[in-house]
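Figure 2 data, in text form.
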Amino acid sequence: MAGERTPISRMKAILHGVVTSPWLLASVALLCLVVITAAFADSLIVGDPAKQNLLLRLKPPGFRDRTGAAFPFGTDQLGRSIFKLIVAGAKPALLVGLGAVSVSVLLGVTAGLIAGYSEGPLSDALMRAADLQLSFPFFLLAITVAGILGPSLPLVLLIIGIGNWVPYARVVRAEVLELKAREFVEASRAMGARDAYILGRHIFPNNLPSVTVLVSFNLASAIITESGLSFVGLGVPGSVPSWGRMLSEGRDYVATAWWLPVFPGLAIFLTVLAINLIGDYLREVIDPRLRA
């Protein structure tokens, strides 16, 4: 049909929107930098980022030692390079974020598809389970579980993933309830298609835009939650560099060594801001009501 946009034309429109917006272009570039840093952190860092040298403690940004080694972000109270710790901390932040989002999507989308399509006792049970989870303060629950079982990377990933499935389930269920009454679904059902085929071929693909937007915002939330748990000592293990733990350790040196909390705080802030700006743009592109 004339005027109907093809996937290629839609992609061109999205790329044009990214290129013509300085803030959005900067967000994409920053997020790509964080992803590359996390993926190649071991190759980018020379030496052990956790290596201590008390002779170099609390050196300001731009400091160079007698060997000529540079410390662009300065050193912390144990003489460790803050730059190296931030580079190393990008990996667990993104690993937990992406892993937790994957768990949330798997649980939430599956629950939403079942609850919306079945509309029976199982649907009611799933929605009551969602309401029950929403009745508990999530961060308090996460602290309790992590405090009992002890900090570990897989545990933090699972806690955040299981704690964020409800938005996906609610959004997907609402869309399934609307989609299954459409003519193309009724026609497929009249032709003898099985429920699994209808869900996989017709209903689930139409949920992808909304799920994509939720993923973008949920990723930012997961990174903040991981940093918060690490801030209180219940996130990733102490042997793993973490932006949240760096922020916690540096808060006692705000007056004497401002760079200790500032740089890890900026790493969290800029990463989350970039993800949120990209997510907001995707929401505007995907939702036709916002383009009207």
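Caption note: The chain has 13 helices and two strands.
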